[in-house]
Amino acid sequence: MSNKSVSASFFEIYGNQHDVEGCEPLFASDAVIHSNTAPGPMDFATYKQLGSAYLAGFADMRVEILDQVEDGKKVASRIAWSGTHTGMLNGIPATGRSFRSEAIMIDRIEDGKIQERWEVSDLLTMLQQLGVIPMPGA
Length: 138
Known about the structure:
The protein has helices at residues 3-16, 44-57, 123-129, and strands at 27-35, 62-71, 74-84, 98-110, 113-121. The model has no long low-confidence stretch (mean pLDDT 95). It is of the alpha+beta class. It is built from three helices and five strands; from the N terminus they run αβαββββα. It has a single domain (3-129), classed as Roll (Nuclear Transport Factor 2, Chain: A).
């Protein structure tokens, strides 16, 4: 499996099949995940909890890979994710509204597994589309 396909598999398994547990074989046992959606680096067990929270909030979540570039052991992916807010999301009650925003993830792959991930998601756009944060000029 190429490094690019390891990263792509994550987006398919998690984002489109909604199988958080099925992503575990893609990550090294000591993987470290850095994300602007968490207060600090996470191990995969914590990352699974975060992923499950998003799936609880967006049962119809979809992920689309917009760009993906591989350079040696690193794979950079620009994705669009979308869904309808039908469940509780980190204390935010369901709004019934849909969103579409982007994220960028950089994976460092070692021996066919994600050893380290850096993830930046456009949460502001998501929260504005859900009506949780006002849109500028609104």
